[in-house]
Amino acid sequence: MKEENKITRRQVVAGLGTALATVAISPVLASSVTETAPAGPPKIDDPRGKYPKPPFKSQPQPWPGLQSKMDPVPDCGETSYKGSGRLTGRKALITGGDSGMGRAAAIAYAREGADVAINYYPTEEPDAREVIALIKKEGRKAIAIPGDLRNEAFCKQLVQKALAELGGLDIIVSNAGRQQAFSSILDITSEEFDATMKTNIYAPFWIIREALPHLPPGSAIIGTTSEQAYNPDPWLYAYAQTKAATMNYVKSLAKQLGPKGIRVNGVAPGPIWTALQVSGGTTPEKQQLFGSWTPLGRPGTPAELASIYVQLAASDASYANGQIYGSSGGVGQP
Amino acid sequence: MAFAGLALFNPAKAQTEDQDTTTIHFIVQASISGLQEISAGGLAAQKALRPEVKAFGKRMVADHGKAQTMLMQLAKSKGYQVPSQATSPPVPEPMLTKASGKDFDRLYVHMMVPGHRQTVLLFQNYAIRGKDPAVKAFAQQTLSMLKEHLAAITAIDDTVKEVAQ
């Protein structure tokens, strides 16, 4: 890849500022730089008013919830994400790809040139159909593989089907999560605890183990963890410990797989407005006031994390391994 | 160099605390928590097994109903625009509507304790730091009632020993 092509593409994506920086680099580059440098005032967004603020309508849905029924509907970058060939020819499997951050990643990956398989729980089909259509619109392969991640046999089938239909695999985004709020540990049944462990800890294990023999050097594995891994809320006893486990497996696997040329990283969101939050993932009061406690005064929307999933999958982030990239509006860790 | 260019176009704006925004935030939070209390309390008044839980639910509906009316009148008289998402009755909490018998009592009581703790903190904060005198007075008045609620539900919580099966 030519150096000046990289800079030009970055300019186009980043807009302002880089024009001034690159002039200093070399006279050879200067001419190509001034041809594509954007003119006029910088285009920047005020993050505070960019996406919906609380209070939100009280809107409980039965698990797992559909984002298409939310008010407002989360923005996953459907109309805003613009790709620039960062993942050309890549093949990605994304769990929880029907809505929320998985959806934002699926859309972004497709716009960056990748073929994408998405997994989701069968009742999430209406949301998933929209994502499949958006991926196909980019001229990329879009594979829908619904099923229950709590089942080991299904997790194996999921990987085999993705491999077969995509013709290979080099990005795994283990993002699907079960989040249920309980005021007290006394209110959590064994069944509920088990469901959370199976979805959030066992499924990533089963999927990565099944896929690993087929992942070439240069592949990327990304796990969705959370600020809850570092500073958990008291009503998320079951969920939060699985996010700590995720953060931890990212780091141990990064050490194990780094020598094989496979990078493993994590994304730690703060409060993001997704179907999780209206289907029992938080308390009724917090659902209405979601994100109000952050310095930006609002929850994040999935579109705001898409570029992180792209960044960690892209080959130019070749030194990121065992990292956890946060996005939380100013609260918590990392 | 790039940053100097940025500064010319976008001078940093210092964030000043807007008294009205803070008061509106308090009103929004107080309204939402009050309406949630009324909703859950109504379910308890209907469905609770233990008489003391049933009675507590009835009390929540009555006490928070009055407080909510006062709060809305106050907001209206001062011309504060409170979004409808914060003033419409919430959808009843599904975990509570689905539960019955001992399970209901356990879930309801367990939800009420931290909920009330947070409400006390919310009102305490505005009662001390609030800038609008009328709203501050409302917060101070309501605070003693909220502390009584918290004491009552904490006492009931101590007697609820069941565990989910």
UniProtKB/TrEMBL annotation, chain A:
This is Uncharacterized oxidoreductase YghA. SUPFAM superfamilies: NAD(P)-binding Rossmann-fold domains (SSF51735). GO terms for molecular function: oxidoreductase activity, acting on CH-OH group of donors. Residues 1-30 form the signal peptide. Belongs to the short-chain dehydrogenases/reductases (SDR) family. Residues 52-63 have a biased composition (Pro residues). Keywords: Oxidoreductase, Signal. Residues 31-67 are annotated as: Disordered. The keyword Cell inner membrane does not apply.
